[in-house]
Amino acid sequence: MGEEGVVHHVGRQVADDRERAAGPAARQGADAFRAATRGARRWRGPAPLVWVAVAFAVVQLAVMPLRLPLGWDEAVYVSQVSPRVPAAYFSAPRARGISWLAAPAVLLSASVVVLRAWMVTLATAGLAVAFWPWRRLAGDAVTAVAAAAFAGLWVVQFYAGEVMPNLYVAYGATAATGWFLRAVTGPGRRGVIAVAVSVAFTASTRPPDAVFLALALLTAVVVTPSWRRWRPAAAVAGGLAAGLVPWLAEAYTRFDGPLARLRDGSGVQGGMGWTNTLGMHLRALNGPLLCRPCHLTWDYPPLSLWWLATPAVAAAALLLAGRRRGRPARLRRGSPRTAVLALPAACAVAMSAQYLFLLDYAAPRFLMPAYAQLAVPVAAFAVALIRGAGRRRRPAVAVVLGVCFALHLVSQYLVLQRRTEDQTRLRADTLRAAGLLHRAGLRPPCTLVGPEVVPLAFHAGCSSEALSGNNASVTVGELLRRVRAEPVAVAARGPRAPGFARGWTPCVLRMPDGADWYLHLAPSPRVTGRCG
């Protein structure tokens, strides 16, 4: 017992002696005092993780424009739950979880500011919820550093306010892995239930990612004897099954079954098969948002050093945790066990495999689930460096690591600004084109046809249709029948009209950047306006 413990023990004995001498009234007062002091000792204020989430929200509101118009994929997801615009074609690879998350704001208001604010709120809460189970596994310091490292990435900052699924897949997977570890290493049903909910949430948002996550967790049950408990395994399998129910139901109603939907999804993705896109992901790390086809050069290599270093640092964390296993307890205090760091690393590898070795294109958002999982061992390594340094060197080590992290955040901010400016310009042009469409006489209810019309049709309030390609949704015959009921136009980036529309009225929507839209308006008494 240390000096503080001795003093506390002696103080309690003196208080008990006084209590016995003073009688029942004094004893009641002492009981109340002890209860109050126990509560005060338990209350330590908000966890550091909460402060990280709050800082994340503040940065979002300060840096990201809430008025940023919706992009292509966002238009698809939002249109599924919006009462104001027709639903865009929902292709086979997509899942509806992110649409349901956005639904409260979409149903409440047509304002993009309201929607962005709602998504930032969800992203903030999601950051805390995702890393919450890791507090008991890795400690408050490691958990807070991991959450900060993940939240500091430009791709996380950009997509926090977007209606896109990848960030929420990262949240669900990180929470599922943490609760799984708690379920296999401790008693109680809380962890088991949380595992099932987390896996189900991930599956409802992006099913393929959830399948790879579940495979990694179930493999861990098989290969680790001390983890062979049926409840956690059943929670993973049951959560996956529950989360896949909407996807399966839609597969039967729209795609002739799950296998047909998987085939269609593979076709939309360009055909899934063995490939190696590590180089693509490295070159596309700092943008554009989608690299398809991906023929970029590797620009600004220093901005990508963190990506190259992350796997090495995670491996170093595992080695360090393994070396500490045989050390005295006083040297291991506060250090996560090897399994706590190995499982998220394994899940990161499993969830990134499909994007690195099955898809022939890249996007920075695809690897967010892996980044979230790898943040835990990376943070554990950083905290271990500080704690493992001697008393004299510890402040210097902390300062060096802090400066490195600050420089990393600055580099991420620079990339974020570049990507935000690009998207603001591109999406503002789409809004301008939608206004010109209205001037040309194409107003709701209306139909816009073409391979690239989804965001333009969304902002114009029209249905979006395609005659060919990944989003083919209508035939020429169906389109010609629709002409009798509402205004219809073919929109493309080139002036050539399809055969059935050669007698339609041509119209050019001039854009400031020269990427003009060429329209062909079907004859209709409702189309009254002028081109601009």
Question: Could you explain the architecture of this structure?
Answer:
The protein has helices at about 5-20, 25-40, 50-65, 70-80, 95-110, 110-130, 135-140, 140-150, 155-160, 165-185, 190-205, 205-225, 230-255, 260-270, 280-285, 305-325, 330, 340-355, 370-390, 395-440, 455-460, 475-485, and strands at about 445-450, 465, 490, 505-510, 515-520. The protein has about 525 residues and is mostly helical. The chain has 3 domains: about 5-40; about 50-390, no CATH class; about 425-520, no CATH class. The chain has a 5-stranded mixed sheet. Helix 5 packs across helix 6 (about 110-130), helix 10 (about 165-185) packs parallel to helix 12 (about 205-225) and helix 16 (about 305-325) packs antiparallel against helix 18 (about 340-355). The longest helix has about 45 residues, at about 395-440. The chain is globular and about 80 Å long.
Keywords:
five-stranded mixed sheet, disordered N terminus, 3 domains, LipidA_mod_glycosyltrf_83, 532 residues, mainly alpha, transmembrane, 22 helices, transferase, membrane, glycosyltransferase
Task: Break the fold down into its secondary structure elements and pairings.
Layout: H1 3-22, H2 24-42, H3 48-63, H4 72-79, H5 97-108, H6 112-131, H7 134-138, H8 140-151, H9 154-159, H10 166-185, H11 190-205, H12 207-223, H13 230-254, H14 258-268, H15 278-283, H16 305-324, H17 329-332, H18 338-357, H19 368-388, H20 394-439, E1 447-449, H21 454-460, E2 463-465, H22 476-483, E3 488-492, E4 505-509, E5 517-521
Parallel strand pairs: 1-2, 1-3
Antiparallel strand pairs: 3-5, 4-5
Helix pairs in contact: 1-2, 3-6, 3-8, 4-21, 5-6, 6-10, 8-19, 10-11, 10-12, 10-18, 10-19, 11-12, 11-13, 12-13, 12-18, 13-14, 16-18, 16-19, 18-19, 19-20, 20-21
